[in-house]
Amino acid sequence: MEKKPGLQLREESVFIPIRASFDFLKQLSNNESYIIRSRYPTINNTTCQIKMSDEWVAEISEASIEGGKGFQPADFQHFQYGFGREFTLVNKSRVFSVPEGLSSFVFALGSTGEVSGSFFELINLRGNFENYLRLVFEISDTGFRLTDAYDTEPFKTETSFYGGGLLNFNVGNSKMRMFSLRENDKLYLVIDSLKLIRYAEFTEIVNAILISNGVCSGTFQRGKAVILFSTAADFTKIADWSYIKYAKSKLGGGVIRPMDLGQLISGVPRDRRAVPPMVLGNVATLALKKPEFSRALSIICESSDTAIEVRTATYCVAMETLRNYILGDEMEYNRPIKSRKTATQIRQSLIKTLEEFSAEEFNDISSVRKKIDNINQYGNTEGFLKMFEVYNMRLSENDIETLKKRNDFLHGRIPSVSGAVEENRELIMVLLRLHLLLSALIMRMGGYLGYYSNNVRWKYPELSDEPVFRAFNEDSDLYYPPR
After folding, report:
1. Mean pLDDT computed over 62-73
2. What is the rounded average pLDDT of the residues 19-47?
């Protein structure tokens, strides 16, 4: 692709309006009055104030707990007087459902008896209808940049031009957009639905994107988010908002390093160095539609900050989960014997032969019968190798030996762990290889045909026989210095 001059690139780049969104977000820092509707008499029909704090937290204040005829507030203390259960917030402008109650709760003892706290989620009932929805994360905690992993596009806003950082992709039938930007000295990640969509569907798609991005980029970006409701497709007319408090972000280490690859080895096309947006969309679509696949991605992302022995064992579980999905019943390549009819005939013949022998000839005849019943299923290591074969991924001897370690972790034969990093070398190498195999397989399922960073080599530079970047296909792996 011909490289365009900066001025031409700026003029031809996509324009994304963001001013209306951030003006609306700024207004949320002001207190707004609501009436509480609850099945608990201690808080029903009381008033409170809601606002967004500077720390990007939806807060409640000036709430109260009431006594009444026939009940005492202490009767409901174990439910946080009603604040720990579902309730609704109502004013003239909007209605919020609070499905999980408050995430934090402070009851000021004394004459005021004032209640304050924060929310897990505020669901705007406008979400029952279709809107254009925009989710905004404040991501200064991780410094996550889409350009670190993806093949992004330039874009411009009302006040700024960005040479990269924009992704357009489809998740199922939904056209989505994701971009990162800086506003008021803070970093933000924005996810837009470019078609009319309901809140519940949008949040499901966002969850699929987040775990897919966690694998593709190595950063499981989450945190506190505001979802903006727009009546205009270009997000110039913001009408309302909701709030979600996701768990904290996790940094797991990625296997896509486009800048390093471009600096070390010349001539590699951009779409072989960085993940195309379509791949993220394809992975997210699988996560949205296939629970087993989504579960494997979640296992990988959630384990990224655990101890190395726990993380390695968890990767083995994720590998099992992927194998069960890839070689599942609906897949035509899922069994060693092609024809189910033939497999049944062989099974029946073996059972008939088994029955010709006395039970006294066996220590455990039920175990033998179970093996016959499972004759048309792959063994553990065979299944692992088969799922990579399905996606035409060439494995090295080190890869195969790593996959065989699954049984070691399952049966407690884990390499010793100590406080010294160098003494944990064997376990760290298994961890890094498993992570690469899982990440590469998932992205290959999404259609990525580029190179992956071999983090074992980056961790241990003295392993000169190891490639710096892996292809897992007919292309040669990349070494440095080049061979």
Report:
1. 80
2. 95
